[in-house]
């Protein structure tokens, strides 16, 4: 047991048995309080049922289960997105990818999000820029269903298509193609720590670059003139990804650093 009898929120907020931010999220989930209410009513005494639930969920967090899967959501671009074990958990680094797209899009631009997962990229783009025409694809129906639920809840008008990359598109073209594809090399030791997330969303089960090669190789066919391709990748893949972009005829190829100063996003223009 991590807490006994009838602890107050103040008691539990002071505990350091798990990450403090995770602890606050758990307590909000259990009590139904938002963050402001959690702090304002820190003398609230939990019921026995809430205490038991708290102890059980803390054990799950300590076992390595992602908090986002426990509470069922993850914040991205200041919005809460539903996530399930069928979807990758959105990362802060991907917000930078959204910012790059927003910086390059013109009024009424058509955007294609390849491998949408929870839909966080596509939905955020549409909510930030209602003039955009956004299409989001994923090859896995269960992931696509989560994205559709997120879009419906947030009232974001998105075209969703079940497709393996471009396979469902013939001659359709877009101003922007964006993707956060599986890019972790199968031998990367970090995969072990990510065992709860769908492996097919994390790795290509090869060198980490095969999905990127596939996306880039057909990108010019599906990009309008002066259209942009933007891809998130591993911190140590910048050089290889730039070479793939250039080899496939993209111009103005640049890699953007993430908030930690690591190479994270490569962009190229169809010109």
What structural keywords apply?
40% helix; 9 strands; 2 domains; alpha/beta; 271 residues
What does the model show?
The protein has 271 residues and is of the alpha/beta class. 40% of the residues lie in helices and 20% in strands. The protein contains 13 helices and nine strands. The strands form two sheets. Strands 5-4-3-6-7-9-8 form a seven-stranded mixed beta sheet, with helices on both faces. The N and C termini lie far apart (62 Å).
Describe this structure in a few short sentences.
This protein has 271 residues and is α/β, with parallel strands linked by helices.
| Low-pLDDT regions | none
State the helix count. Answer: 13
User: How many domain regions?
Assistant: 2
> Any idea what the shape is?
elongated
Architecture of the largest domain in CATH?
3-Layer(aba) Sandwich
Largest sheet: 7 strands, mixed
- How is the CATH topology of the largest domain named? Rossmann fold
Question: Can you tell me the CATH class of the largest domain?
Answer: Alpha Beta
Please identify which CATH superfamily of the largest domain we are dealing with.
Vaccinia Virus protein VP39
Structural class: alpha/beta
Compute the average pLDDT.
95
Strand order of the largest sheet: 5-4-3-6-7-9-8
Helical amount: 25-40%
Q: Note the run of SSEs as H and E.
A: HHHHHEEHEHEHEEHHHHEHEE
Number of strands: 9
Rg from alpha-carbon coordinates:
21 Å
| Beta-strand proportion | 15-25%
